[in-house]
Amino acid sequence: MRKLSVILLCLIVFIGLFAACSNKEEAASKAPAATTTPSTPAPATATPPAENTDDITKKNVTISIYYPTPDLVERRALEDDKIKRFNEKYPNVKIVKSEWQYNPNEIGIKMGANEAPTLFNTYATEGKFLAERGWAADITDLFNSYEFKDQMNPILQDQFKINGKVYGIAQQGYVTGTVVNKKMLDDKQVPVPDYDWTWEDMLNTAKGVADPGKGISGIAPMGKGNESGWNWTNFLFEAGGDIQKIDGGKVLATFNSDAGVKALTFYNRLKWEANAIPQDWALGWGDAVGAFAQGRTAMVIAGPDGPVDQALNQGGMKPADVLVYPMPAMEKGGKHTGVLGGDFLVVNPNASKDEQEIAFKYATFDYFSDKGLASLEENIQQRKKDNKYFVPQVIQYFNDNSEYGKKVAALYNKYDNVYQYDPKITTLWDGKPEAQFNTQDYYATMTNVVQEVFSKKDADPKAQLEAAAKLVQEKFFNQIKVN
């Protein structure tokens, strides 16, 4: 009997130990998986466990962030300063710099391999795309609890508000415009057009300045890369057209409209009637903007800050000779519609809740802050020492009428090396957001159409657009189901 009691006792102890082990395994399986990035080496020694607390400043957290490319020296300096100041407030956070630049063809691979940064950059077209594929964290709660949410610029921020939820943080934006070299117009005695200009004004100005024999063009519409389709889309919008529409849960191509034909016919006129575009018209963004900065073309179509920056700081132009115009209206009294785009930061949905919170805090760290304002002023002052100009974004993350917006305007007014946009253009600009479905695929397809028009005088605009719409519809849009 005693022997049996001993056996029973051992059995009870064994069952208890087995149950304890099972509970530990179950608890471990329910714990959130740690996220890693390829640029974060494994620590040589074990990190002490974070204190069990809800205070985010007491937890050891590592995040990887979008970091500007090596050519953007001044922006890197600003980011380094921000990291330093952020770590002074949050010494518990380790920040890893990621040089990966958002690419719609790579984001799926990065997410699948868990290699996307905790906080990465993207652009306006990608909001719906990222949200629907689960590649952007739902940061609605973080945004709604943000004390300055009501001062964010709705023109930008609302582009990443999908079905009532927030999936991104606005950084800066633009309405595509036309940047004009006034000196080139003056030298050729070509009248400077009014800001409330039309397609005919653009064509006549470009024709008057162009000197093909000397390699000088009146305007340099982009002719290669997706930016070519992007450039042309401004004219589609100005003619009252659109890229796509939703009908019965389907996405339908609409750019093969009468408006599309008008816009493509205008491109034909710039090339074959006015002879106003470069003889070598296959220019990407960098080529076209570079030609403008070098005085080889009088006009370029883009988000204005880039061409203005290069013209002043690389081309040696004077601010008075670099004019920013809205896109021309198709006809007098029409809208000056330009593609509305912008840069956004997105939080990785694979990150833990703590990492997502820290990423949001980092993204908005300088927003609406005096330290952020001081950092901006230091950047302007350094540029002045280097004999360079500071060119602000056309649209900022903050509302211009907010208290902070007024502080920024006052700061800009203190320095003569800050480029100032003429307030007249802001009353004319009409920004239209890019399409939310397969926009880059559409741009690439339209680039082929633009090249056909520039290379063949008798290219049929209607036939070209019909073929392009059929391709985009069958290859891309037919694969989409809209709830």
Automatic annotation (TrEMBL):
This is ABC transporter substrate-binding protein. Residues 1-19 form the signal peptide. The keyword Signal applies. PANTHER family: ARABINOSE-BINDING PROTEIN-RELATED (PTHR43649), SUGAR-BINDING LIPOPROTEIN (PTHR43649:SF16). Transmembrane segments: none annotated. InterPro entries: Bact_solute-bd_prot1, SBP. Pfam families: SBP_bac_1 (PF01547). Residues 31-54 are annotated as: Disordered. Keywords: Signal. It comes from the Bacteria. It comes from Paenibacillus albiflavus.
